[in-house]
Design a protein that fits this description.
86 residues; mainly beta; 10 Kd Chaperonin, Protein Cpn10, Chain O; globular
């Protein structure tokens, strides 16, 4: 699988830590305070600069769309939705 143009394929990193608010356990899906998700870059389009394969990136939670490839789920996002390279 190879991203093209300004797109980046990302494997989302699942958060393992639980957050408790007032005795309630908040899951990652319910956490509205987290605007950004963390992921590992799988493939970078030919027009993307400053990001390379295997980088850890933070991207907007509403960015892109999911795609299933070889029984694994990835996110395809625009490079402009990436806010931080770790």
């Amino acid at each position: 699988m190879k991203a093209v143009n300004h797109y980046v394929v990302v494997d989302k990193i699942k958060s393992t830590e639980e957050r408790k608010v007032g005795g309630l356990i908040i899951s990652e899906e319910d956490d509205q305070e987290n605007r950004y998700f963390k992921g590992t870059v799988i493939s970078v389009g030919n027009l993307v600069e400053g990001i390379k394969d295997n980088d850890i990136v933070w991207y907007d939670r509403h960015a892109g769309h999911g795609i299933e490839f070889k029984d694994k789920f990835y996110f395809v996002i625009k490079a402009g939705d990436i806010v931080l390279v770790d």
